Each structure stands twice: as structure tokens, then as C-alpha cells.
């Protein structure tokens, strides 16, 4: 008997959501329209943050434990780069259009 590799149990990520799993944000680039609320869901066993890259960005989550979420509504168009401050190699972008 061999273990099944098809039974992934990760929660599905739809529409305006970003999964945090395997030490990465997925999708790495999310495209949304202005006024959209994006929710990040930590599916890892380690804590992660959602923090704007550089100073002055709007994203500032606390450390998210497993299954914790963080949401932000984008009210201005632009490209928003962010990272996990605990694991700075984890980077991603939200592109907001009108």
C-alpha cells in the first residue's frame, strides 16, 4: 500500500484571497480592482506577517498563527509589494486597478 499524494487538504483559495503556505504567498501576484478587500490566510504551521515593503505602505498585520487571517481593502490603484517580516524572503505583490 502506498500513501496517496492526491489528497491535499489545504483550504482552497478563491478570488480575492492569498494563501500563505510552504513559506510563500500564493498567488505571488494578485490582480484586483479598486475597492476590493483581500484576505490572507495562513495555512502554514509557522507564524507569518503581511507587511508592506518599504516605509509608508498600508499593510501591517500582526503575526498570523496557523489558520489566522488578515484583510485589507485597497482604495487606491497601484502596485503594493509586501513581505513577511519574520521570513523576509517571502515576497509578493497586489496590483490594484480602477
Short key terms for the protein model shown above:
98 residues; mainly beta; Immunoglobulin-like; 4-stranded mixed β-sheet; 40% strand; globular; disordered N terminus; copper ion binding; copper; electron transport
Notes on the structure:
The structure is a single chain. With 98 residues, the protein is an all-beta fold. The chain is 0% helix and 40% strand. The chain contains no helices and eight strands. The chain has strands spanning 17-21, 24-26, 29-33, 37-42, 51-52, 69-73, 78-83, 91-97. It has a four-stranded mixed sheet, with no helix packed on it. The protein has a four-stranded mixed sheet with strand order 3-8-7-5, with no helix packed on it. It is globular. The model is unreliable at 1-9 (pLDDT under 50).
